[in-house]
Amino acid sequence: MGMALPARGGSIFKEGGIERLSIDYVPERLPHRESELRRIVEAFKPFLGHPHAWRRILIHGPTGTGKTVTAKKAGEILSKISRDMGVRFKYAHVNCRFERSAFGLVQGIIRQAIPGLPLRGYGPAEYLRALFGHLEDNDEVLLLTLDEADRLIGGLGDDLLYALTRASEAAEVPQRISIILIARDANFLGRLRPQVLSKIRPDEALDFKPYGRSEIFDILSDRVEGAFRAGSVSAEAIWFISKNASALGGGDARYAIQLLLAAGLMADRDGSPRILPEHVREAQERMDPRIDREDLLGLSREERDALLAVARALRAMGEAFYAPIEAVWGYYRVVCEGRGAEPIGRDSFEAILGRLRALGIVDIEEGAGISLPLMRARALEEFLEAGS
Questions:
Q1: Model pTM?
Q2: Which domain holds residue 366?
């Protein structure tokens, strides 16, 4: 990153930067999903030249593993390829979680595939026949993604999938729709009726694993470049957010991006030219609180003293996300002196820090020191001082 900083009081976001951190945004690059993206595009390329050679692909994996954005990116790439080939191609992406009826779901497909078709006076079966007829009459092919397809089966059953495989026969036209199914778990296929599964069984299934900490770091670094002004987000901030997302969000990239966005908005609120450690900690507190007052009140006197020392050390460090253990040890001795208590030995002190780490209250990074991943240092200091 460059060293130029935005003027105090100005936004640290680039124009359109906040939109680039939205859930629906499809970035130019997909770090650590390049191979899956390539496989999807290659699988559907023959469908463009031979529209009756329809394909079915299943993408499955936990939330925040890039399933939706990879499917949408594949749709973008295939749209460009089809234009170069002179093929009439459409991509439609419908989230089954937001539709409570087969009628609403089919309407969602029609809105994207045939925008000009009136959405009144027809039932789902008629709409599907009209869709297949339109594709045939206009020599078009459609790649349809049914996102959260497991929700569809759980709520509406498999009637819509069955209708999609049969509507072309009812319209007496060839099948011109290829399908991507997105689900958290591939086991939902076992709930399909045999006659539906035989028609919709995937030709290929892609298992999207949760991202690791370094992978989330790469994803966030890519988003930071597009969304923030130069110098407003340090590598340390990205790493800290990545670590939280890995430990607390289970490798969910959406969790990490939401945390980054929230921290950026708090920096803007404060007129700060960069995201500071307290902005990330406050974003974590608000977005996914994990520690409450009762947790802190349940700590021993020695543990509270050690935690107060951590909070004071981090506040003194300013823009550093971690405080050296040696510095925390020094603040601990001052805390004890302030209340007229004898400090425990260094080994016992580090053992207490280890217990606080096991409770998830502090984080210790080898070579960096100790930090507070879940709460603001200032708020913690004030709370502990009030209770002393």
A1: 0.90
A2: 293-387
